[in-house]
Amino acid sequence: MKRVAALLLSTALAGCQAVPGEGPLAGAIVADAGQSGAEIGRKNATVFDIVDVNGQSARLVSDYVSSTLNRRFGIGGGVGRVVIGVGDALKVSIFEAGSDGLFSTQDSKQTSIDLVVQPDGKAAIPYVGSVQFAGLTLEQARQEILEALKQKAVEPDVIVTSMSTASRNVTVSGAVGKSSVVPLSLVDETINEVIAKAGGPVAQPYETYVTLVRGKKTGTVLLKSIIENPSENIHVKPGDQIFVARDPRRFTILGAVKANQRVEFGANDLNLLEAMGLAGGGSDYALDMKGYFIFRYEEPDVVMSLLGRERFNEMLRKGMNTDSQGRYPIVYRFDMSKPDSLIVGQTFPIKNRDVIYASRHPSVDFSKFLNFVAQPVGIANSGFSIADNINSINN
């Protein structure tokens, strides 16, 4: 029995490296930050850097204004040169000075002709024949018809009016009042105006995402950003596709907290302290106050500003890569043991799909180890008592 007890004790000591834990300690996160996969011994490890958050860095992150749509598509200079296209409905009004002309009578000196531009870009007008409309402005079309009538009609004049613009449609679908094919007018129209024509968004701007597809380019931005940043409210163009989706913003909280969970923002904005309160806060007995982290894929402009160009280029050489949206992995660290952290935490914004990780204190693992060891030691003590009792009986 003494041998059994000794064996159990040695097994417990050998297993000290296998003490379970909930996620990495703060020291492990800091140790891996800024290291390449080869340097940390994992070839395909994600390379990231760490930023200690203070008042200055918090303001930099908070003041950043995303310009996804403007950067990708450009707000442009308005609608530019508006031309007639295939499928457009036009009204051609022809006037003559005389009362016995081709298009005039004693009762009326004008004739109106309704036409639709055909797939070949042309439409027929009596006594003129087929006229090329597609690619021309209304004024150019007017001049074409007028020139063709000068030798046929009596002092003719022409007015060309656009009745509908099938060639200038934009498709709006998704979480809007009514999915629609919206015809563009001849004046500037922005994303917000086109969405309004489709009945407007059905959800709050802070949980509504707008995706614009133009040719082979795609860009997605929060409707809230379009409203707050006018440069994102770009002009739409014929053929654009706009998809509106309701996707409540969420963050995930893990580690030494009351509960590991995914939490909806439920508000227009959310800072770190509000997020922690919304999730129930950390565990009083297990939390490392110096080990609050936010794991995020951050915009390249922000990462470069936080790290500096030299450090940023160094991280690229070490293998730091972007996600599908061109953002870089970054970890923000907060020291909640400092009084000003309660001020800084109010200015640091939480973003959609952030992961807030509260590291446990190193003493937690030591306590687990002691409990782990105590179990076989207790068994061993029982074994010693049994062995002593057996020896007493034998004697």
Offer a few descriptive terms.
single chain, 395 residues, alpha+beta, Outer membrane lipoprotein wza fold like, wza like fold, 3 domains, six-stranded mixed beta sheet, five-stranded mixed beta sheet, 13 helices, 25% strand
Could you describe the 3D structure shown?
The structure is a single chain. The protein is an alpha+beta fold and 395 residues long. The protein folds into 3 domains: 33-64 and 249-360, Outer membrane lipoprotein wza domain like (Outer membrane lipoprotein wza fold like), CATH 3.10.560; 68-79 and 168-246, Roll (Outer membrane lipoprotein wza fold like), CATH 3.10.560; 89-164, wza like fold. It is 32% helix and 25% strand. It has 13 helices and 16 strands. The chain has a 6-stranded mixed β-sheet, with helices on both faces. It has a 5-stranded mixed β-sheet with strand order 8-7-11-9-10. Helix 1 (2-14) packs antiparallel against helix 13 (362-394). The chain is elongated. The relative contact order is 0.17.
Blueprint (SSEs and pairs):
Blueprint: H1 2-14, H2 26-32, H3 37-40, E1 49-52, H4 55-63, H5 68-73, E2 89-95, E3 110-116, E4 122-125, E5 129-132, H6 138-149, E6 157-164, E7 169-174, E8 180-183, H7 191-197, E9 208-214, E10 217-222, H8 223-228, E11 241-246, E12 250-255, E13 261-264, H9 272-278, E14 287-298, H10 300-307, H11 309-317, E15 328-334, H12 341-347, E16 355-360, H13 362-394
Parallel strand pairs: 1-15, 7-11, 12-16
Antiparallel strand pairs: 2-3, 2-6, 4-5, 7-8, 9-10, 9-11, 12-13, 14-15, 14-16
Helix pairs in contact: 1-13, 4-12, 10-11
GO molecular function: polysaccharide transmembrane transporter activity; porin activity
Subcellular location: Cell outer membrane
Keywords: Cell outer membrane, Ion transport, Lipoprotein, Membrane, Palmitate, Polysaccharide transport, Porin, Signal, Sugar transport, Transmembrane, Transmembrane beta strand, Transport
